[in-house]
Amino acid sequence: MPKAVQQKNKSWSEAEDTLLKDCILENVRNGKTQLIAFEEVAEQTGRSAGSVGFRWNSTLRQRYSEELKKAKEVAKSKNAKTKTTPSSDQASTRKNSSTTAPTPSLTTIDDPFKEDGGITYDDVIAFLKSKKKTDDKYNKLKDEHTTLQEEHKSLKENFEEVRRLVSKLNNT
Questions:
Q1: Do residues 120 and 107 make contact, with C-beta atoms less than 8 angstroms apart?
Q2: Which of 47, 103, 122, 147 has its C-alpha lying 20 to 30 A from 137's C-alpha?
Q3: CA angle, corner 43, sides to 41 and 45, nearest 5?
Q4: Is the pLDDT of residue 1 over 60?
Q5: What is the rounded CA–CA span in Å between residue 57 and residue 79?
Q6: Taking phi first (over 0 means left), then psi (-120 to 50 degrees means alpha), and beta for anything else, what does residue 84 get?
Q7: CA 78, 21, 62, 129 torsion: positive or negative?
Q8: Chain centroid to CA 33: how far?
Q9: d(CA 8, CA 46)
Q10: pLDDT number for residue 97
Q11: Which CB contacts under 8 angstroms, 24+ apart, belong to 57-61?
């Protein structure tokens, strides 16, 4: 279940690390990008895709390098199988699917972490759209937080004024 508010400076739990690892490996095995996995985990944990990516690249990637290597091999073998024996159903599915590895072209950005060629512009655009939504939500919550802080301050001042008046009445 997605959380409404992004977490700030909260330690990563073992469960979140496991979720991130499993999601990355599953996406890689299925020929998807790690960016997509970052977004999926971000939504599930209430963190930003950037912080999820940072956690993966700075901490977990080294820890699970063997599993990642195997996942890439699985993706490579799946990709090789579909290239050598495509049925008509597979061919039409591949044309409409954004989950298969992109064919190197002018619209592909090289990614040193992917063996299959890179990240497509569609992946980057999807990531940026997700980032914009996250930023918009953050800014809306930040504005709401500021408004609530001001309201809280005003109520606190009013409460203190009432308290002072009651105290004054009690002393007379």
A1: yes
A2: 122
A3: 65
A4: no
A5: 25
A6: alpha
A7: positive
A8: 12
A9: 9
A10: 43
A11: 59/12, 59/17, 60/17, 60/20, 60/21, 60/24
* Residue 14 token pair: 């073992």
Residue bearing tokens 């790690």: 34
Q: Rounded CA gap, 30 and 101, in Å?
A: 9
Question: pLDDT tens-digit profile of 45-73?
Answer: 999 989 899 999 888 989 998 998 888 88
Q: Mean pLDDT for the chain?
A: 79
Taking the CB of residue 15, how many other CB atoms lie within 10 A of it?
9
Among the listed residues 37, 16, 42, 40, the one whose alpha carbon sits nearest the alpha carbon of residue 27: 37
